[in-house]
């Protein structure tokens, strides 16, 4: 009983530490010249993936939630960016954690990360098209968002092409990058984490 309690405490502490690390990593972002400036690349989903692999998808989603709540205190997006980041991050860590939980091998991890990246990309496409861009258009006209985007990618001329040429490739790239780092890092640190 005491061992179970100690393990639960350790899980809670590690999840909190991973959440704090994710929040810090969220502040270290960069715009890529091949994408519109409002799409910023960061690796803050990495700690959430580690939590999801170690303790299950609920821990991954909790890490995503805490990271975004912390980031909300300094946001310039009225919380929309954080809501989007939480939604996309959760779409990444849940399938990755579920698949890895049933197959705790490198192959299972890769399959989970590929499924998570695809799920995140599809979620990003639909969420941006139906929810996020319409909501953002109350803060900034959609025409201005499209104009800013077409400066980076000339093929963008409406909401659909913004999703097709910017949102989808960006999320595929971000998912691939975070997945590669997770694969390289997870086995090295997994011994420290209580399962």
Task: Give a quick precis of the structure.
With 195 residues, the chain is an all-alpha fold. The chain has helices at residues 2-27, 45-55, 57-71, 80-102, 106-136, 142-152, 159-189; strands at residues 30-31, 40-41. The chain is built from seven helices and two strands; from the N terminus they run αββαααααα.
Keywords:
195 residues, mainly alpha, Arp2/3 complex 21 kDa subunit ARPC3, two-stranded antiparallel sheet, 2 strands, 76% helix, elongated
Walk me through this protein's architecture.
This protein is an all-alpha fold. The chain contains seven helices and two strands. The protein has helices at residues 2-27, 45-55, 57-71, 80-102, 106-136, 142-152, 159-189, and strands at 30-31, 40-41. Strands 1-2 form a two-stranded antiparallel ribbon. A hairpin with an 8-residue loop joins strand 1 and strand 2. Helix 1 runs antiparallel to helix 2 (45-55), helix 1 crosses helix 3 (57-71) and helix 4 runs antiparallel to helix 5. The chain starts with a helix and ends in a 6-residue tail after the last helix. The relative contact order is 0.14. The model has no long low-confidence stretch (mean pLDDT 93).
User: How many domains make up the coordinates?
Assistant: 1
Helix content: over 70%
| Computed CA radius of gyration, to the nearest angstrom | 17 Å
Structural class: mainly alpha
Elements, N to C (H/E): HEEHHHHHH
């Amino acid at each position: 009983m005491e061992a179970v309690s100690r393990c639960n405490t350790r899980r809670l502490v590690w999840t909190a530490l991973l959440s704090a690390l994710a929040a810090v990593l969220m502040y270290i972002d960069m715009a890529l010249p091949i994408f519109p400036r409002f799409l910023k690349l960061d690796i803050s989903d990495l700690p959430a993936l580690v939590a999801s692999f170690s303790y299950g998808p609920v821990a991954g989603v909790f890490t995503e939630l805490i990271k975004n709540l912390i980031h909300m205190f300094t946001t310039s997006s009225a919380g929309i960016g954080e809501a989007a980041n939480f939604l996309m991050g959760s779409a990444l860590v849940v399938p990755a954690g579920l698949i890895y939980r049933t197959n705790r091998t490198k192959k299972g991890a890769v399959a989970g990360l590929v499924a998570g990246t695809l799920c995140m990309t599809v979620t990003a496409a639909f969420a941006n098209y139906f929810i996020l861009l319409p909501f953002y258009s109350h803060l900034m006209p959609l025409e201005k968002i499209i104009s800013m985007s077409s400066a980076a990618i000339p093929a963008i001329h409406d909401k659909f092409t913004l999703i097709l040429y910017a949102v989808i490739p960006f999320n595929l790239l971000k998912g691939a990058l975070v997945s590669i780092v997770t694969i390289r890092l997870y086995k090295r640190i997994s011994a420290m984490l209580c399962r």
